[in-house]
Design goal:
The protein is 73% helix and 0% strand. The model has no long low-confidence stretch (mean pLDDT 87).
Amino acid sequence: MPFLAGFAAFLDYRYWINTRPVPLGPSLVSGFLLFFCWFLAAALVLFLLYRLYRKGDGLRAGIFRRFAGILTNVGLIGLLILFFAYEQAPVLGMRLWFLVLVAYFLVRLGQLVVYVIRDYPRRKAIIAERRRIRKYLPGSKGK
C-alpha cells in the first residue's frame, strides 16, 4: 500500500506509547491549537443557542447544552494535552492521549446521537401529550 508510506510513523505503536516523544513542530502545534480553539468557539455558539431556546423548547435546548458540554470538554482537555506535549512532559506528553481524547469524543458523540434518535422523540411526545391534556383541565390557561 504505497499511499500509506507517509503515515508509517502513525502505524507504529512506538509512536503513540513513547514516554519521551520528539517535540511537536511549530506548524503542528499551531494547527492543534487552532483545532481545539475551534471546538471551544463552537461550544460557545451552542451555549448561546441553548440560552436562546431554553424558554421555548427545553428539549432542543438540552441537546445544544449537551453538545456544547462535549465540545467544551474536548477543547479544554485537548489544550491541556497539547500543553503537555509541547512542554515534553515524560508521560503526560505522550501521543497516546490524543487517541484517548478522540475515543472519548466519539463515545460521547455516539451517546448524544443515540439520545437524539431514541429518547428525544419519545420525550417530545410525552410533553406534547401532557400539554394536550393540561389544556382541558380546570385552572390551567392552556399552556
